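Can anyone check this?
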Amino acid sequence: MVQDIETAIEIAAPADRVWSVLTHAADVEKWLGSLRYQPALGHVFYMQQDNARRARGDIEGAIHCQVETLDRRRRFGFSWYVPDMPKTHVEITLKPSDVGTRVSLTHTGWNEYPPEQSQPIREGLAKGWSQFVLPMLKKVAEG
């Protein structure tokens, strides 16, 4: 069984500020590297890791995401998938903390893939979420 990805970060900003950065179209591009994001349930957007393609607005080779949850100042969720492959799910939750806001990310659904396929993808994403995405969210929210 492949474990869910779970990671968290403390952000020195109130939940209102973090929520705004988390879901405002212009800010999502900064911390998530996404294209065509809109804060609407069911909306499909793209995570393009190739900087040149992202600069051109090219979604070829991008990860597809669909907004699943917009629970103001509490939860933001989206699917994460490659077409014709199973969807996984990312949920980001916000809770007040002594610092400001604790942001927790959980990425589930790995059991939809054969373990030999999901484990390498999951390991790479675990590093990406904890070492790049959440720190970028923190940088933008605290900036």
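Reply from J.R.: I decoded it. The longest strand covers residues 63-71.
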